Amino acid sequence: MLLHIPEVLSKDALARVRASIEAGEWVDGNVTSGPQAALAKRNMQLNEESPARKQAADIILQALERMPLFIAAALPHTVFPPLFNRYEGGQLFANHVDNAVRRNRAGDLKIRTDLSATLFLSEPDAYEGGELVVEDTYGGHSVKLPAGDMVLYPSSSLHHVRPVTQGARIASFFWIQSMVRDDAKRALLFDMDMSVQRLAQEVGLDHPSLVSMTGVYHNLLRMWAEM
Ligand code: NI
Fold first, then answer.
1. Do 60 and 82 sit in the same domain of this protein?
2. 106 & 202 share domain
3. CA–centroid distance, residue 219 to ligand 1 (Å)
4. Which terminus of the chain has fewer CB atoms gathered within 10 Å of its CB, N or C?
């Protein structure tokens, strides 16, 4: 499932994230890459261990906690602390699948990557190119969102970032280990959750059939959730 989550960051939060990372230390994006990714990736990355990275990541993590759409779609178990990248002057990231397991540099966190997230921090008119293209069975989906908006997609999918030919594309990227590792099961739960919420607007959350359907949702989640 490919999902657009609008306005994850308010204008104020976006400005604070931008101020923090722009003053930070940017390094070659390949410092953390394996040999295959190093061939595919051309970008800059904010030093993972810098205070600027941590400060900006905390703003994003706090915003995510207040996003019901993110919680419903990702069913997060662990969110990897957000990282930041910048593409300019023709830089790109060729087609790849993200690593299945991600460790932080400090070595005290290890997650299975079920979902990948890109949170756009530059307005679309600030750069040319730079679309995130995610492939699924329907072909490639090109994503370029307003600053503050985020896309969630399965970490199992092939994806690439098209060359940025003008301006600079700054984004945050991170991964989520979900309580429900299977994308199809997670998508079913999300559809059901959204349907229950829409129906609740019409008939009230205490309608006996909705109480029953909400129970089915939780019983499926209980069956599939891993802690
Ligand atoms: Ni990737």
1. yes
2. no
3. 33
4. C
